[in-house]
Design brief:
Elements: E1 3-5, H1 14-18, H2 29-46, E2 61-66, H3 83-89, E3 97-99, E4 105-107, E5 110-116, E6 121-126, H4 140-153, H5 157-161, E7 164-171, E8 174-179, H6 186-189, H7 200-206, H8 208-211, E9 221-227, E10 231-236, E11 249-254, H9 258-267, E12 272-274, H10 278-286, E13 291-292, E14 299-305, H11 319-327, H12 331-339, E15 343-345, H13 367-376, E16 383-390, H14 393-407, E17 411-418, H15 420-428, E18 434-440, H16 445-453, H17 471-481, H18 486-503, E19 507-513, E20 517-519, E21 523-524, E22 542-543
Parallel strand pairs: 2-11, 2-12, 16-17, 16-18
Antiparallel strand pairs: 1-5, 3-4, 5-6, 6-8, 7-8, 9-10, 10-11, 12-20, 13-20, 14-18, 14-19, 15-19, 21-22
Helix pairs in contact: 11-13, 12-14, 16-17, 17-18
């Protein structure tokens, strides 16, 4: 039972992919021939090898405004999927697969691939002609080295890649993954940082510490300067495998103040802003800017409780307290105030409609019910608790609003706004009280939930020291990533969300939100804000000015 998936049929077979090999039988010779022919055309597009438009101009520096430094170093094995790390990775890294506008993935550094759930194998056919910025060829040995190294030290191994038993080189450009259990999410995992390729020769020559600040990927640019908390400059590769790079360079400039970055965009000091807040987006929209929101929404915002309560004295260790807090918050008003037209209220984890379950009830705004539950839990006069979150305008605004709502039912909230390493540490273990979290949702909801809410996760995981991880949640999520068909995947994700929300109130989902981008109209073909927040097309970008 073996299927070959090419670029042209990846979206059409999304359901079969998530289901492993469910649905129709193997394709006929005629179908395979058509797929191969169109795959060649798609490969040219993916590689940036299509003939450039006659009016495209060469030269210049694309200047991009961003609001923070990297969360992690730029070594691909250290990355954990933080949104800003993806932005900085655009010029230098490419992955084995790439998200598309349909919410599935296509091969990128692969020509195509096949999979066999009965034999527990994936077979990857590596794209020929790809080189790293140091000249090293991307072949099967290089892919195996990257995957083996990631399986040894990568941040998301347990969450996303634990099904991989071994990686085997079949021939010069063919790699086989041997699994210990079936996983339908591997192509999705390899469309994110898990699938970034780093030059093995460069790593072996220079060592890990050097590589943390000197990425060597297959992308169209090389990192040439890094001024911490100020800027990064990436210079074009003359030998980029995907064709001529039109820009001379790309510069990322950090603006801590959203008003300053907006003014810089309007003056032409910068050409684009990444991850705008809603207020800045509305202001720029009023000036005529087209605010880009991507084809696929990207973030879920949720309030997380110390439900594990290791010390035994945290009020949020009590289910009734957690439910009371949820009833005390007017989510409709909060989402409108913080995200406006760019966010939607959502009572369960995820984005979009595909995995949405009507079985999840959630919590209506009912302050009186909140007070009743607090009294039943032994807190008729309320209590004092901490709420921590990351230093972004959206999270700070949302936390302040939550603080106000909880005060109305007798809960005094002490806010802690954290940045950088402190925020990163708190995300995994914030101590007592609550953590307000903005989570990227990386295309596949089963993959994302499996990386956050399953048992026995290691590494940097949301609330690894704070969140309950019940057996029935584990069972539902385990089934979702090994589903026999797409209906089963949807059903089990819905059940996991019902348990997380209604049964245990481990997290309280507030909103699904688009990542917002503003790009000056003279920036052409950059791909910024078009498909998904984690990818752009800077190799084909040019400036019409």
């Amino acid at each position: 039972m073996r299927k070959c998936i090419s670029l042209v049929v990846a979206a059409a077979l999304a359901a079969g992919l998530l289901a492993g090999c469910g649905g129709s039988g193997s394709g006929s010779k005629g179908q395979e021939g058509t797929a191969a022919a169109v795959s060649g055309e798609s490969a040219e597009s993916a590689a940036g090898q299509m003939e450039a438009a006659s009016d495209a101009k060469a030269g210049g520096t694309l200047k991009i405004g961003v609001n923070t430094e990297c969360v992690h170093t730029m070594l691909s094995f250290d990355l954990t999927g933080a949104g800003v790390d993806y932005y900085y990775s655009w010029p230098v890294y490419e992955s084995l697969f790439k998200p598309n506008a349909e919410g599935t993935v296509d091969p990128w550094l692969l020509e195509d691939y096949s999979y066999d759930p009965e034999a527990l194998t994936y077979t990857f056919h590596v794209r020929k002609g790809v080189t790293f910025s140091d000249g090293t060829v991307l072949d099967a040995e290089a892919v195996k080295w990257n995957l083996d190294h990631y399986l040894e030290v990568g941040a998301k191994v347990e969450a996303l890649l634990s099904s991989i038993e071994s990686v085997e080189v079949v021939d010069e450009y063919t790699v086989q993954l041997n699994l210990n259990k079936w996983s339908s999410i591997l192509p999705y995992a390899f469309s994110r940082e898990c699938g970034y390729m780093f030059s093995p020769d460069f790593f072996e020559k220079n060592g890990e510490e050097y590589c943390k600040e000197h990425p060597c990927g297959t992308g169209p640019f090389e990192l040439t300067s890094w001024d911490y908390d100020v800027s990064k400059t990436f210079t074009k590769r003359d030998d980029y495998w995907g064709g001529d790079v039109k820009l001379d360079s790309v510069e990322y400039i950090i603006y801590k103040d959203a008003l300053v970055s907006s003014a810089a965009l309007q003056s032409g000091e910068i050409d684009a802003i990444l991850a705008l807040n809603a207020e800045s987006a509305d202001a720029l929209k009023a000036y005529g800017y087209d605010i880009k929101t991507c084809s696929v929404k990207s973030h879920s915002y949720l309030l997380c409780f110390n439900s594990l309560n290791k010390t035994g004295d945290d009020p949020t260790g009590d289910l009734k307290v957690r439910q009371a807090i949820c009833h005390a918050i007017d989510t409709d008003a909060l989402v409108q105030a913080v995200w406006g037209d760019y966010g939607d209220v959502r009572n369960q984890f995820g984005v979009g409609t595909h995995y949405y379950s009507e079985d999840v009830k959630g919590y209506d705004y009912d302050p009186e019910k909140a007070k009743e539950l607090l009294a039943e839990a032994g807190y008729p006069d309320g209590f004092e608790i901490s709420l921590k979150t990351e230093e972004t305008s959206a999270l700070k605004n949302a936390a302040t609003i939550i603080q106000s709502y909880l005060a109305e039912v007798g809960i005094k909230v002490n806010l802690s706004i954290l940045s950088g390493a402190d925020a990163n540490t708190a995300e995994a273990g914030w101590g007592e009280g609550m953590w307000l979290h903005g989570s990227s949702v990386y295309v596949s909801v089963p993959m994302q939930m499996a990386s956050m809410f399953r048992q026995n996760l290691t590494g940097h995981v949301l609330g690894i020291n704070n969140l309950l991880r019940p057996d029935d949640v584990e069972a539902a999520l385990a089934t979702s990533v090994m589903a026999a068909d797409e209906d089963e995947a949807v059903k089990t994700v819905g059940e996991a969300n019902r348990l997380l929300t209604d049964e245990y109130c481990i997290v309280y989902n507030l909103a699904e939100v688009a990542t917002l981008f503003a790009v000056n109209d003279y920036v052409k073909d950059s791909g910024i804000g078009e498909v998904f927040y984690s990818v752009a097309d800077l190799g084909n970008a040019w400036l019409d000015k």
